[in-house]
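A protein record in our archive is deliberately plain, so that people and models can read it alike. The record that follows is passed on verbatim for readers who wish to inspect the format.
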Amino acid sequence: MGKLAFIIVDGMGDLPIPVLNKKTPLEYAYKPNVSMLLKNAAYAFPSVLGKLAPQSDAGVLADLGYDPIKFSTGRGWFECMGLGMNPGEGDLSVRVNFGQVNGGNLVSVRTEMSKEELFTLEKEINSKVRLPVKFEFKSGESYRGGLILRAEKERFSAYVSNNEPGYTAKFYKNGKKLSFAVPAKNTRILPVKAIRKEGKRTAELLNLFIRKAVEVMITSEVYKTRKKNGLPLPNYLFLRDAAVSDPKLQDINDKYGKKWAAVVGMPLEKGIALATGMKLVNTGELPVLSEDLSSKADGAINALRSFDCVYLHIKQTDSASHLGKYAEKYAVIEAIDRLIIGKLAKELDVSGGDTLVLTCDHGTSSQLKRHINSNIPVLIINKKFGQNKEFGENSCKKHHLQKIRKATDIMPFIMKL
C-alpha cells in the first residue's frame, strides 16, 4: 500500500427520506469527484456495535481497528484528552454539554455559543465554583466542554449515570465501559445517579458541580446578554460518559507499521488521535463550512507529504442530522466531494498504489434526529478494484466486501492492500 487518506464523515450514514425520492442524503447528494474515482472502487457495509447505536468514540475506534468493547473506558477520557486537560489514572473525566431547561423539563441539550462566550463561562465556573475536591472545567466547541475531578484523596467511580437524555452505557466484566445512544423518551431532567454502590460519592459530587455551576451561569453577563437578545440560554449542564482509567490503546504507528497524522478539529477526535499516537497536524474547526473543509483538505495534503497515513474527520453532517436538516446534510456531503475529495484525488496516485477511504463512524437519522444502529457505508479507492456503481448505503449493501463484516475489519483489510 502507498499513501492512505482515511476520511471519517461524522454521522454520514442515514435512512431513506421520502422527499429525497426515498434516497438517503448520501445517495441524493451530487458527488462528481467521487463518481470519477469509482472505476477503482470497492464497497463495504459493516456493523459497528450490532444492535447498539454507537456514539462517535466507539465508531471512530472501530474504524481505526480498535474494538471498543475491548478498549473503551468511557468517552469522557478522550474528550478531556482532546481538550488538553491531561486526565490521569484515577481522575474522573466527563463530557459536558451546555443546555437549556425550563421548569425541570428539557428544552435543548445544545445551547450553541461563541468561543468568547464559552471561554467567559469557563473562567467563571473555575473561579467561582467550590467543591470538596480539586476540579478543572474546560469549554470546547459550540456547546461542549469537559470536566475532570482530580484524584488526590478521593477515589472516583465510572459507575454513574448520564444526566443527558439519549445516551447510556454498558459495563463489561473486563472493566470496560461502552457508551451508546438510545431514544430519549422523557423530557424531565434527572440527576446523575450511582449505578453501583461505589458510585454514590461520585454521583453526589457531579450533582453538586452541576448545581453550583448553574448558579454561576445564570448570574453571568453571558446569560443576561443572551436573555436580553432572545437567544437560547445556557442554564444547565448535561454530563455523560464518565471515565476513570486510561484505555491504553496500542500506538497506531506500531500497530500498522505506518506513520500516522490526524487532521481533526473536535475534542473527542483529537483525544482519540492522541491516545493512538497520531501526530496532530491541523486542529482547526472553522465556522464557515467552505473554509473549514478547504483548510482540512490542505492540511491532509500537506500531511501526506510527510506521513504514510492521514486520518481526516469532518463533523458537520452529524450536526445537521441532529437538527433534522437533511437538505443541509446532503449539501455538506456535496461540499466534501467538491472541496476535499476533489483536492485529494489530484494529490493521491491511486493508479500507483495510494488509497482513499471514505466512511463514517455511525449513522445519524435526519428524521429521528439521533444516532441509529445502522451499518455504515464504506468506499475504498485503490488500483486493485474495478468499476462500481454510485456510492451510497444501498450500493454498499448490495456490493459489500465479504471480508469486512464489522467496522473493526476495515483497517486490517486496507493495510493489506
